[in-house]
Amino acid sequence: MKLVNLTKLASWAAAALLTGCGFALPITQQVDVPVYVPCVKATPARPEFELDKLSLDAADGEKVLALTRNWPRGRRYEEMLEAVVAGCL
Fold first, then answer.
1. Which of 2, 10, 13, 80 could form a disulfide with 44 if both were Cys (CB 3.0 to 4.6 A apart)?
2. What is the pLDDT of residue 43?
């Protein structure tokens, strides 16, 4: 009788251990979720143009010289703005 109880106990223990192997462990998955991020991180600082500093009654020659000096500054600023906008596309 004791041998029958021992075999039943062993078979139940084996069945219990084997059922644990039948279940799959949870698997960690990576899910990519799009998140809104503003494309403009920082805007370039607007340069100080010499023409803005001139008085309204300045001579025409002074205005032309101020515009000539402002041209490269304005172009650099424009290029920086275009680069920021291109980063958003």
1. 80
2. 85
